[in-house]
Amino acid sequence: MGWNKSFKTLLALVLMLCLVPGISLAKEDTLIPMGDSIGIQMDLSGIYVTTDVKVDQQEWLKKGDIIRQLNGTETKQLVHFERALQKDSATMMLDILRNGKHETIQADGSLIKRVTPFLKDRTEGTGTLTYVDPESGTYGALGHQIIDSTLQSAPSFEKGAIYLSEISQIKKSSPGIPGYKISSIIDQNKFLGNIQINNVYGIFGHWKNSYNKVLAEPLEIMQPFELTIGPAEIYTTVEGSTVEKFTIQITKIEEEQFHILLTDQKLLSKTGGILQGMSGSPVIQNGKFVGAITHMFVDEPEKGAALFVETMRTNEK
């Protein structure tokens, strides 16, 4: 009887804890907010043609074509294509993928040797690392899809990686003219993580544990309904490789995104507003991790839009 009474008392206490406002027995989901500038490299699924180029009297390679073979030699990378070109021939046959369909076209031996500058097998860019999940060993960055500037589409890719980069110069934003970061990868031999997914919510992959920077403490994920109009801050990098905190205002909350206004005068004097390459910068409010900057308003560069980090995290697979 004594044991049963104690058990009932313990059970009642547990139930009381569950019912008291502000007390939860569940572990809150957390992520580490980052803000580092990153270099992005993706090896494409084949050799892409970047502009229309003539290869014979009546034949053209079209922008977006993928070259699969040259004279029967498989050409997954530019180096394969260049080796195949070394075999002199008055006429060469190209196997290509055009609009999802396989085609074979004839190429003049001399004209085909001039197309290399209009081909690419890699896309590169810069952005901002949003979060690292220490529990799953994954990361998220950008908050939007990588669109190849030449192909104007999200390219199919074989593999990719992100690298820590440092900013050497900044071209300031002004109304109607987006600014950008001029940066370079610090160490090409040390990648931070691979790229497994490139979707409308960002790029995602496995995080490499050898990163020598001391990571920030994990923060609780703020749910969209918790966000309020008012002050917040962002983590981002605008000089070297140092992540800094800057003040912003949350100005509008929508179902899938929210709007921000840069208010930090130090940041505005340095950048003129949001820059290309700041996509992915974490947004923090009241000590919670709420989202990531994704876009700027071109005519008002101090204003922009952000994606909820909960949305990013649930779409990283």
UniProtKB/TrEMBL annotation:
Signal peptide: 1-26
InterPro entries listed in its UniProt record: PDZ_sf, Peptidase_S55
Highest taxon of source: Bacteria
Pfam families in the cross-refs: Peptidase_S55
Keyword annotations from UniProtKB, A to Z: Signal
Chain ranges of the Peptidase S55 domain: 96-317
UniProt-recorded name of the protein: Peptidase
Provenance organism: Sporosarcina ureae
